[in-house]
Structure to design on (656 residues):
């Protein structure tokens, strides 16, 4: 990160990828000095007139997220859009970053002058992940990217964080097989605006058509995220490209409706306030877990055995936090 | 409530309904002196050797919960069981108690010597409701009730609290119509161990059979609450009694499997620890909302407008709680 704040801001606005990449690294840093620099940088960025289309994408490993994102991204850049892909990657914690991996996965898109592909670790709390993702999106938008695709493999709470910062949230599923088999977590289907049945080609075409029907039926039992905008199911073959244009059309249409109705402004304001309360909750629970005024292990054991009531134990923990005796 | 603790304990154990009813009133009271008496009473009760079967029941208004619970309860008492029904009733806050209402709803059961029917308000936090419900269950078990049915109409967070204290959780739905139309909240279907299609008789019989198939298909997409115990869908006609025996058989079978596998002990220990953390979270968020060190309204407005970052605002709120400057 350049010491020079003005230089960094100018670089990002001018679309300098290196300046953008460095700023995102700052967003991800847990060092207090970086967080301070980061807050300054975000404040120094001009307020965006044009807001990007924020598209969240999740699905089990192997379902074809990268292939679809590459197909979508290439379609978008051909339409004259500038596309940023932020991959929230649990593996990057383990393997020390997988930026190369992503660049390898999305070869054409990563090389395209109008696209930017970046992996970020998914570590930390739900609130922390939501913050970093939202800040990275803000940086990409300042750098002139009009479509921001946020990808997550869906381990831990990352889908919830990604759904919370997305305007349109896509869930990718394979044709056939219950989702139990696909390892889709509870509640994820209810966050999805669009369920995409991938690999809808060749031998799997018939199976995919069946799956589309099954998902439509299943989704009819769930309350959509935005009232008046029921969830949709779309078959796509990222390999042949079939369905990708239809999918993008649906995403554009949904976003336009959110935008023109004023719902988007409202949704984003709600997202920010929700993010504040998630961060309050995370911070306070963290303080509670770090309290050294009492032994949490002993207390938990007593509660589990039934010798201390959960509420008596909770009252003790709350008092410890309020007395600020936590080590956090 | 008798001043005499030993008398109260003896009364409850002897199966005196008045003593049980008075103790539950104490559990529901928000007065500190009552809560203190209540804690003493719960501690004084002997540890239960036999644990009851805790059955949660939810569903939209008008779906037939009372009719089904009466049919189930009468079946159970005929089997030699003693049945307590705890109805978590959001309306009782508004109308100053609806015990009479419930007694009118479940006429035969409420009059049966081996049954106990009680309505409780659903006011307060999720943690508070979970506490009161769990304590009321404990009192009923001490009074010798072997089947505890906890009913909630599912407004606010009451289903989550009820599911959290239940061994088996039942969701009642009407034949036909998506659940959107039935007003079932997000995530509730995922808590259900058994989905019951009510009114499966007469003109609706065919529609009910269809619904059973649709729900089976929809549930196959969700991960069951207990691994290895997939959710089940059962058609029931509470009026004719068809299916009630099958339903009770399934409940008994599921419970027996939970019990013999040791999962029940584990589940209940987890429920208690979860309840502790929910109460910690509720208490801390309550303290955060009550903080008078800063104006939450102004802060929320600034966050919604984007002039203050959600995380900067959260940090201020957390500090205010830790400094114990809240008025709560």
């Amino acid at each position: 990160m350049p010491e020079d704040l003005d230089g960094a801001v100018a670089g990002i606005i001018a679309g300098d990828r290196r300046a953008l990449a460095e700023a995102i690294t700052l967003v991800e840093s847990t060092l207090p000095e970086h967080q301070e620099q980061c807050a300054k940088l975000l404040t120094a960025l001009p307020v965006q007139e044009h807001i990007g289309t924020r598209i969240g994408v999740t699905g089990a490993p192997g379902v074809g997220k990268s292939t679809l994102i590459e197909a979508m991204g290439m379609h978008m850049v051909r339409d004259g859009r500038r596309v940023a892909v932020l991959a929230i990657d649990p593996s990057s914690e383990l393997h020390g970053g997988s930026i190369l991996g992503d660049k390898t996965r999305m070869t054409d898109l990563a090389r395209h002058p109008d696209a930017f592909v970046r992996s970020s670790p998914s570590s930390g709390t739900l609130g922390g992940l939501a913050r970093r993702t939202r800040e990275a999106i803000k940086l990409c938008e300042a750098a002139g990217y009009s479509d921001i695709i946020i990808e997550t493999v869906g381990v831990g709470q990352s889908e919830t964080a990604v759904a919370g910062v997305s305007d349109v949230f896509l869930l990718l599923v394979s044709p056939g097989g219950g989702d139990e088999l696909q390892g889709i977590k509870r509640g994820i289907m209810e966050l999805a605006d669009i369920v995409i049945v991938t690999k809808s080609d060749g031998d799997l075409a018939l199976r995919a058509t069946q799956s589309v029907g099954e998902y439509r039926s299943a989704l009819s039992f769930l309350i959509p995220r935005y009232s008046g905008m029921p969830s949709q199911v779309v078959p796509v073959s990222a390999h042949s490209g079939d369905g990708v244009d239809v999918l993008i059309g649906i995403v554009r249409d949904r976003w336009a409706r959110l935008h023109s109705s004023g719902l988007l402004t409202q949704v984003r304001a709600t997202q920010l306030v929700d993010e504040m309360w998630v961060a309050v909750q995370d911070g306070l629970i963290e303080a509670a877990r770090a309290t050294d005024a009492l032994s949490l292990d002993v207390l938990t054991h007593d509660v589990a055995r039934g010798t201390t009531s959960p509420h008596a134990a909770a009252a003790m923990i709350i008092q410890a936090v309020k007395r600020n005796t936590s080590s956090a």
